[in-house]
């Protein structure tokens, strides 16, 4: 199902979430880059204070992974754009080292930044240069890996060895 226009309220609940054969939740997210500023979007975590993350959320059974990435980026960060490519898939682990979710990241070229968005009341957004984004994502190593694997990361990684 295509989502050219998104609702003003975020989707909630997990009844339509996609899980793999091992019952691991499938997540889609984005590396959303504003081509005018060459900065990447990061957002505040909904669970932890002072923790920053890349936009991501559940892939639902009525959309493609790319559509889910675009929807989540709009819901969480108030940004719409065009998917420019697949970055890679990464596993997020719980505190015991068990796989919690499988995250599929896509590069998103930002076309519009909204002043109002569905999760604006409980999320902040921040536009960051590469080094700042890597520092702010330090609590999410898989997100740092995704950022490094993206075109944005490869073009801006001047001080960190791959």
Automatic annotation (TrEMBL):
One of its GO terms (cellular component) is nucleus. The keyword Magnesium applies. InterPro entries: DDP-like_NUDIX, NUDIX_hydrolase-like_dom_sf, NUDIX_hydrolase_CS, NUDIX_hydrolase_dom. Its cofactor is Mg(2+). Gene3D superfamilies: Nucleoside Triphosphate Pyrophosphohydrolase. Signal peptide: none annotated. Pfam families: NUDIX (PF00293). The keyword Hydrolase applies. It comes from the Eukaryota. Keywords: Hydrolase, Magnesium, Metal-binding. Residues 23-149 form the Nudix hydrolase domain. GO terms for molecular function: metal ion binding; pyrophosphatase activity. PANTHER family: DIPHOSPHOINOSITOL POLYPHOSPHATE PHOSPHOHYDROLASE, DIPHOSPHOINOSITOL-POLYPHOSPHATE DIPHOSPHATASE. This is Nudix hydrolase domain-containing protein. The lineage of its organism: Eukaryota, Fungi, Fungi incertae sedis, Mucoromycota, Mucoromycotina.
């Amino acid at each position: 199902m295509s989502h050219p226009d998104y609702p003003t309220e975020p989707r909630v609940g997990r009844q339509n979430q996609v899980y793999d054969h091992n019952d691991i939740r499938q997540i889609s997210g984005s590396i959303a880059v504003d081509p005018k500023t060459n900065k990447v979007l990061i957002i505040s975590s909904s669970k932890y204070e002072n923790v920053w993350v890349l936009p991501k959320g559940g892939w639902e059974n009525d959309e493609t992974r790319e559509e889910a990435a675009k929807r989540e980026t709009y819901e969480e960060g108030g940004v719409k754009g065009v998917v420019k490519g697949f970055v890679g898939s990464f596993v997020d682990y719980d505190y015991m080292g068990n796989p919690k979710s499988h995250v599929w990241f896509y590069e998103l070229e930002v076309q519009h930044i909204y002043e109002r968005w569905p999760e604006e009341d409980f999320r902040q957004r921040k536009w960051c240069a590469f080094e700042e984004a890597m520092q702010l994502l330090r609590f999410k190593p898989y997100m740092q890996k995704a950022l490094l694997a993206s075109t944005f990361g490869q073009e801006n990684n001047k001080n960190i060895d791959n």
